[in-house]
Design goal:
By secondary structure, this protein is an alpha+beta fold. It has 9 helices and 8 strands. α1 packs across α2, α1 (4-19) crosses α6 (197-210) and α2 (26-57) runs antiparallel to α4.
Amino acid sequence: MATLVHCLFCFEVLAAKLDHRPAPTLWHVQERWERYQAFQRAELDLEEDEEDEGDVDADPDVDLMDEGADDVDMGQGEEDDEDDELDVEDEEPERGVMPRPALRAELQRLAVPSPPHASSSSTPSSRSTASSSRTPASTLASSTNSSSSSLRAAPLAPPPRSTRLSRPLFVTWSTISRTTGQKSLRGCIGTFESQELEAGLRNYALTSAFEDSRFAPINKRELRGLEVGVTLLTDFEPAPSAQAWELGKHGIRISFTHHARRHSATYLPDVPLEQGWTKEETVISLMRKAGWTGRPHDWRKVVDLTLVRYQGKKVAMAYEAWISWRRWVERQGLL
């Protein structure tokens, strides 16, 4: 299944091409994304912890002991002692919840690159042995020149197996109107041949951006209005008929002969739902896309029409999400 990391990588590849600079590897993007997510989780935990403490300090129902407190029945002393002991136990931190000093230290650890001898893992740990730094969370995102150089010197662990998988894939670029929010196709090209993910995403991120014959090549001015979608394809199987597939679950690939030529075309699983088509309308539209020129109700007369169904869930990311991640990474000196 496609992930947001794949979308980030496609944006990185396109932006690098438009800026005439090298693009990072898929593994570098994945590691920085995991670090970014861990930082956000730790920062959110810290904010919630500070909000909870502020609520307790401002609680209007907490009253100071009044003068009548001297009249407490001394016969309840033993029970009061037991209650006091229970109160002390209740104040202990919940198991698995990181104390605030450790959270601050964890934020600072995530906000700067790891030293050369450190693990590249970015998952926050409740057993962190970092010191109880009191650096405010708002200043943890500042970068230094030395952080960038230390990252370049730090060796990365071998890429995980997930970055070396091979899948058929499609990359879709769309534009989103700033005024209406309407989404329009800007380029979509892929392959049914299995591709190693990094090479395949790198190739088709650019091919769909610059070589879709239906559109002019994407230019740098359009970057802010783009959304990218990645679909990894699985479970290919021939369908017994042209309507033996499920809307929203299957993509379809058709093939037929028309005017002594073989024609084929495909729609990804999300296309019919986005267009509001029925299965029959989808097949007719796809036949038109492939080059069929017959009348709509004559589509069933195409005797050699074959259909292959497949599955694949598209994962999409807009420019705003990508640039937010990238600016954070730049502030840490991680690019």
